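pinned: reference chain
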Amino acid sequence: MDYGHPIEFGVFITPTNQEPHAPVRLAQAAETAGFDLATFQDHPYQPAFHDTWTLLTWVAAQTSTIRIGPNVANVPLRQPAVLARSAASLDLLSGGRLELGLGAGGFWDAIEAMGGERLTPGQGVDALAEAIAIIRALWSTGERGGARVDGQHHRVAGAKRGPRPAHPIPLHIGAYKPRMLRLTGRLGDGWLPSLGYLQPGDLARGSAAIDEAAARAGREPHEIRRLLNIGGVFADPAKTAQLVDLALEHGTSTFIVATDDPGTMQRFMAEVAPAVREQVATARRERGTDTAPRPSAASLALRAEGIDYDAVPESLRGTAVEPGSWAYPDRRSTYLRGGEPGIILRPTGPAQVADALAYARSQGAAAGRVVLGIRSGGHGISGRSTNVGGIVIDLGALDRIDVVDASRRLVRIGAGATWGEVARVLDEHGWAISSGDFGGVGVGGLATAGGVGFLGREHGLTIDHLEAVDVVLADGSLVRASADEHPELFWGMRGAGANLGVAVAFEMVAQPVGEIGFAQLAFDASETADFLERWGAATEASERVVTPFLLLGRDQPGRTRVAQAMIAVDASNPETIVEHLQPFAMVAPLVGQQVVRTRYAGVIDNAPGGAHQGQGEPTTRSALLGAMTPEVARGLARFLDAGTHYFFQIRAMGGAIGDVPPDATAFAHRDAQYSVIAFGMDRTRLDAAWDTLVAPHASGLYLSFETDPRPGRLEDAFPPATLARLRALKAEVDPENLLRDNFSVVADDALSA
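pinned: its structure tokens
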């Protein structure tokens, strides 16, 4: 049986410590010779050997491409939970180069002498199964709650999951006896015996036993890779023929040569390995052997209904992420929303974006049969860049940031970059672009919606920095929209871009920004209406270099209501900064304060690393407000008293934002002085309080902060003339309404027709 796996070669090195660095040099020689894998036996009770895990760590640091692993790890002396974390850490540090061989133990006198528990052969198999369950549970960081495995020999009781390895570390099982072979078929990613320990016929019988166990467990035989430790003299052509036969007739795809001789390594990779690969490839072509990577049976069972996975364009297959794949848990959700998309497509250029849109159309996205989400950074508050059972086009790979013309401060930014990355690059030149308040936000989402940021009152919305945008339209055509090219599309992309096309790159003019003042102030806001009125007065009287944001969380029983302010002051002189902040400090009693001079990048580049792990559905409401009149302040205070929120933010607008004519961009509410957003846990209660106490004072809303699905939100977001103009543009560039799953501007009656 040939399973079609790629033919690879490894080396089995003795971890002797007589000359401490000798095994390391052998691993380096193996890497130089071209081996794929370097392995070391693991006998912790053998004082003449290095500790294998310590050796693997050292080898990883002294090599760069060769994969490494124990052959095989002595699980009775390596506590599984610790082994899981050690393996994940080493995989992360080595850039995904670890393979984990596991063994149930065999030298029980020595194991017992080291403090290990003596087990019968049957108990050893059970203990290894428990260990595998623990290892995989701790690597499953996308699962909720702590890891729990209540075994007879190994257990974890709510252990925190993680870290997640850099890649899906394969578990190769050293197995010979029937129960171990069955365990390999059920749970292993690879079978790793030594040819010298096998009797004639054992390889075929063992492989058949693994295949049978795999089938009973609902797996496909190809899911278990076949590795083999081999030795001998390789100058004999018969040896090459033997390896070819092992590959074609027994499915062995990774041959691990037991040698401590660099010359043997070099000769093997120069003479034997190429011949084996060539002869196997020739035979496979003649036989028509399928060598393409295939999903596991478990992954196939998770595929979404209504999506034809075989029809995924060739240009996107290599990077597509499906349910059940290793990358899926890190890519299915956004910052706030838990998602389970049917497939995530990851284009690397405009042509692939066009392929992705064509595929989405073929799956029924234009007809509404399949949900289509477009993702740049995945931070969006609305959570619309993920879904359940649909298609997501993830633009994360389109993340280049280039200076086009330094004399004009013109930069070109890919839609998949984040604003934290942009801030770091621009800061090297002493520039900045106002861009929200969080560095993890993707460029594409913000730069097509608005962008109410910390420098907004001085430099305008993010979209006001745009000079041109490259857009892949629904029909797959790539167009450049600017004031001179496709000017109507350029108008619409600045404020409603998600409806009109997929932006892949932006040309933007940055502003010179040096050190700025950044204050974090905490106020006693118990007299909330009076506080908000005073806050508004201070904001509206301040100069444009000042942009304040205000945050109030859920009230804490028995504690004074506290408002937390973040105020950016585009000035570097300490006295000037303090002068601008003084009116705000007088608004209400301060209960905390911190003021620093920093770079804009120091403020905005605040996103922690790691994948988004949002859960549930975000529940938010948004409003744009004019002046903070006593009536508005009382309405907001009453909303806060209602207690339906857990996060409430007021972002200052005005200033340069209002300098732009309302019909210059699709973001038309240029007279707004504030953007207000609230998060709640209960949709009904939040909507009731908002509709009664906040909405009557609103002059519009910011769609990127809105998750209310009821009719009327589009009319709140866009004035009648703007909405009519957008609908006409939509009919021109996306007549099928392919891009419909982001508050489509198509009229409700047209959607239902």
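why pinned: The mean pLDDT is 96. The longest strand covers residues 515-524.
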